Amino acid sequence: MDRSFLQQNARWLGTGLLLTLASSFGQTYFIAIFADRIMADYGLTDGDWGLIYMCATLSSAAAVVWAGRFADEIRVARLAWLIFAGFAAIAIGMSLNQSPWVLGFLIFGLRFCGQGMISHLGITAMARWFRVHRGRAVAIAGLGYSIGEAALPGLAALAEPYIGWRNVWLVAAFVMLAGFAPFVAWLARDERSPRNPDPATQAPGRDGRHWTRRQVLAHPLFWLLVPGIMANSFIGTVIFFQVAHIAGDMGWTKVGMTALYPAYAVVTVVVSLIAGVLVDRVGPDRLLPVFLLPLGAGVLLIGPFEGIWSWGAALALAGATTGIAHALWGTFWAEIYGTRHIGAVKAVAQAFMVVGSAIGPGITGWAIDQGVQFTGQVLWMTVAVVLISAVHVFVVARLPVRA
């Protein structure tokens, strides 16, 4: 990657990376580390916990559709402060709450602020601030996800026995307010305008126009993309959400399993950077038919083998899909539909992603309560991946050609 590009745009790229890293505290791979403790403290079954998580996450998806437009209307530094403050308050609530009814509202807040708005703001900023190197910018910002995935779950699993899972949330609140919030505000104090030959700072879609959210929702091809968005988040989420269940089922430990999370993160980083360059050269749609296939292969490895190496291999393959997805989706919406309404358009896609991550824990948790272990559910996930990839081939053939 061009070193001058990194040097000239370090502030703005750093803003995106820090925002995606900060979103880790609201992502499933962090929250699920405490699943067994939460279920024990609140007297919940796998199905109960999955249902609470599903309802909270679905509600957060609806809220992101409404609030996502603020990424078009409010400066990044100011909006980031508001979201970080909200998240910190909710994290403190997680440490103090004793009611299972309030738990649902707190999970909603974690998902809305973390997985939803912080992540949405970071990638939307990259899509708007960059044009020629948009794919690379999105890929670099996506490194924040990988850093969080590699470091935070393992640190939380190690800290939990010593300070308790509730105090881990107090630490998260402090890090948000004292670390991320002021640093992001400083980096993003000046907005960036895309550098390109076109004097206009907003790039139209491939058909030469800027699509509104209503027009995107009326576009048939958009709805053919929705299953792929949801499948990626569904499968990717439940792999981490069910980590405590898988550990008990396979005889592994949470510390041992989280120690392999760096395999996921490293592959995500490498593939994301490669995919970012490919997206800039050939367009994001070329990667669409293949991006889910590594995930489909990886999930099949969970269960058949007793060695914990199979968990690491599954994470590595899932990381390949995540790496491609980071570069693919962050660029796809801007290139196909234009950047003028990118915040509103991407919020819809983000909402469907959140829906997928919501129904995954609910469905798999219910199935576990019915006696179907997670390791017995993975075949159907792979079949879905193959079918959706075939649909993506159809979609790519009907998208406007890249100029």
Care to describe what's here?
The structure is a single chain. The chain is an all-alpha fold. It has helices at residues 3-8, 10-22, 28-31, 35-42, 46-67, 70-73, 76-96, 100-129, 134-141, 143-163, 165-187, 213-217, 220-241, 243-250, 254-258, 261-282, 293-299, 309-337, 342-369, 378-397.
Summary?
76% of the residues lie in helices and 0% in strands.
Largest pleated sheet: none
Share of residues in helices: over 70%
- Give the oligomer, counting copies of the same chain as homo and different chains as hetero: single chain
What percentage of the residues does DSSP assign to strands (E)?
under 5%
Task: Record keyword descriptors for this entry.
mainly alpha, 0% strand, 403 residues
Task: Set down the secondary structure blueprint.
Layout: H1 3-8, H2 10-22, H3 28-31, H4 35-42, H5 46-67, H6 70-73, H7 76-96, H8 100-129, H9 134-141, H10 143-163, H11 165-187, H12 213-217, H13 220-241, H14 243-250, H15 254-258, H16 261-282, H17 293-299, H18 309-337, H19 342-369, H20 378-397
